[in-house]
Design a protein that fits this description.
Helix content: under 10%
Radius of gyration: 13 Å
Distance between the termini: 40 Å
Largest sheet: 7 strands, mixed
Structural class: mainly beta
Order of helices and strands: EEEEEEEEEEE
Strand content: over 45%
Oligomer: single chain
């Protein structure tokens, strides 16, 4: 059974940094696209960043230049480094992955395109 567990959320002041991690078990991690989504209170869940099995990356326009997604296939983890945080980055951050190996689709930038999800970690950015 595929399991994803996020960690690293917390409270930070605007302009600060946080590093989120997602530990994956139950599959051959290195073969799959991995993504981060976020959901602010009262809003839809949105794509933040993603990384392919070959480490090609994708970012939402709102986080380009501030966030960096990376993966460590030896440790089965994907990381989201968040710098220059803004109050509008406040949200629950989720790690997600599709069921198909060695495949990328633009659908993977929508919640409906992902098959497995973590429970999320809360990031709060104070002004």
């Amino acid at each position: 059974q595929v399991q994803l567990v996020e960690s690293g959320g917390g409270l930070v002041q605007a302009g600060g940094s946080l590093r989120l991690s997602c530990a994956v078990s139950g599959r051959t991690f290195s073969s799959y696209f991995m993504a981060w989504f976020r959901q602010a209170p009262g809003k839809e869940r949105d794509f933040v960043a993603g990384i392919t099995w070959s480490s090609s990356t994708y970012y939402a326009d709102s986080v380009k230049g501030r966030f960096t997604v990376s993966r460590d296939n030896a440790k089965n983890t994907v990381t989201l480094q968040m710098n220059s945080l803004k109050p509008e980055d406040t949200a629950v951050y989720y790690c997600a992955t599709p069921s198909r190996a060695n495949h990328y689709s633009s659908d993977y930038q929508t919640p409906g395109g992902m098959d497995y999800w973590g429970k999320g970690t809360l990031v709060t950015v104070s002004s």
